[in-house]
Amino acid sequence: MSELVSPKEASQRLGVSVDTLRRWEAAGKIKAMRTPTGHRRYDLTSLVTGNEEVNTSARVISITEDTLQQIAKGLCKYEQQIFKSPSDYPNELQLGVDKLALACVMAGVSQPIQGVPDFISRWAQIPLKEWNIQLDFAEELLEEQLIEEQKPSGFCIETAEEYFDESGNFQKQVINEVMTKAAQKPELYTSFRRYLIEHPVITKGDLDVDSILHFKPVLEILKNSYEKAPESYKLDGIFYCCGHCGGLMYLSKNDELKCENKHCEKQNKPEKAFPTDEDDEVFWLKPDLRYFIHRPGKPELRLTERLRQLNLEVQLYPELDKYDLHLVFSDNIVWAVDVKFWECAYNLAKKVDKPIPRLKHQPYQDSFFVFPDEIQSYGQEYLQEFRTYCTVPLKKYQVMFESEFVKKVMTKLEKHK
């Protein structure tokens, strides 16, 4: 039998907002009717999934990785837009949280989600395993959480990687455009990418000058890679940069300076005031360029310098980024290296679906995936997880941390003295 109640009572009893109820009704997830006076009444005895009527006590909804990706995308988009102008929550975030709220109702959770603000303040800041609903995720994801230090976590950003921009992944758009422009001049691509890595923060004046003097063929692409730095990141009217990676630091809820890359804190390097004047503006890289170009780029450049100090021939981003580092030993043995800086080995493994490609003119004899020393504390379990879920067959020696790889190179050099 139907149990018809007002929107307010339905909201209280189901533990969701009235707006969520209306979205469920529009999507056909819950039945409603109108009284003779035009007031809406909800039927609590049934919910509807597609065309199938189900009883709330008889069905459990499983949340899949697709829903998690939807929520992660929404959280990343929301963080971007609040710097410009606070507005409604992104559709992806709202729809994903609605699914969680429905799963709460189905599972009989004692304190179900009460909308997006409640989700952000509670569930998004705890490990997934504590959500207390049925999750159809890989076990390796259950220790992760979506928000850390009031910002999307690295895991959240990686999960949403393809969805930073409405028209697609902005990072890939930039890289593809530069590759097209650099087709006849490959060194332009390397210079452009290196510039982004070495200049995560820059004044508008310097950006304008450098664009004209050194990057005229890709001038507009370079300028479009940056945006104005948020005033809220200033401490006593001054911007500060991380002493380890050079990225812009933000103020935590305790007014402490923090780097977006949480691993930099372990390096114990003092922050640096960013020099500027009142007549110039400060710009920083757009979000996915910060995470997917600047963040791994620092260890890419660092490893390049360490290897060159060993008198090795090292080429960055050969043939327009077939891979990251191309090493040639004195005996003409060639190694290929891809440097990966990801929080979640499982997420990364899903992205790596092909072997490192070979160059036509100088194919490698061996290839390696190298992870920065900043995450060496994740241990061998991280490396094993990557190998386990990667569809590309990899031997144990092909996956290692940065310092291990340098030792491997030195051992080879010693053997061929």
TL;DR of this structure?
This protein is α+β, with helices and mostly antiparallel strands.
Can you walk through the features of this model?
It is a single chain. By secondary structure, this protein is α+β, with helices and mostly antiparallel strands. Helices cover 40% and strands 17% of the residues. The chain has 15 helices and 20 strands. The chain has helices spanning 7-14, 18-26, 65-84, 91-107, 116-121, 154-159, 170-181, 186-198, 204-214, 219-224, 287-308, 318-321, 345-351, 379-389, 402-415, and strands at residues 4-5, 30-34, 40-49, 52-54, 63-64, 135-136, 147-148, 151-152, 201-203, 226-228, 240-241, 249-251, 257-259, 272-273, 282-285, 313-316, 325-328, 334-339, 366-371, 399-401. The strands form seven sheets. It has a five-stranded mixed sheet. A hairpin with a 5-residue loop joins strand 12 (249-251) and strand 13 (257-259). Helix 8 (186-198) packs across helix 11. It is globular. Mean pLDDT is 88; it is low at 49-59.
Based on helices, strands and strand pairing, what is the structural class? alpha+beta
Instruction: Determine the fraction of residues in helical runs and give it as a percent range.
Output: 25-40%
Global Rg: 25 Å
Distance between the termini: 86 Å
